[in-house]
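Morning!

This is the sequence you dropped in the shared folder:
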Amino acid sequence: MELIKKYFSNLTDTQVDQFEQLESLYKEWNAQINVISRKDIDELYLRHVLHSLGIAKVQGFKPKTRILDVGTGGGFPGIPLAILFPETNFLLVDSIGKKIKVVAAVAEALGLKNVTASHERAEKVKGEFDFIVSRAVTNMDDFVKWTRKKISKKKHHELSNGILYLKGGDLTNELINFPKATLYDLPNYFSEDFFETKKVVHIPLKYKR
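The structure's back. Tokens below.
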């Protein structure tokens, strides 16, 4: 938890309490439904919570913004972002029902009124969103195919509406079809070795119907 306070010093008491609850909630649920590897559960705040919040270092979300988290797994990056931006609306989806069960339970335990958890595939999601967030669920070509028609028309943020994707390593080949992609290196924001090759990829997507 000190790791979160190190990089996000303006948290309210409610947000601090919510972030602090994450460890016990995920350990309890992970014992029943494995959504985080045993190795990672002990590094929850570094490898999952802070990593998710890397998106917030690239772009903060305004009130009433709509965010879609695709392939959310146990709730990352959606849950940490929803704590940080309580007036932003988050839809967290995953094709695996037991993972969404955990997400819904964690959101309810934390009192997150701005989170909806849904068991469905990204392609089937209805509605429009300012940003679509995710953590390396698939290659970028497929991800863009799933999500490109879900972007809202009106821009409200510094960055253009589109995808904010957490991924690591050399992305040269994967992004060859996306010349407008911008890479934000997480070591510019976080000093821990874990982030050495980690990035946030922003791909602007135009409203299409």
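Headline: The mean pLDDT is 95.

More detail when I'm at my desk.
O.
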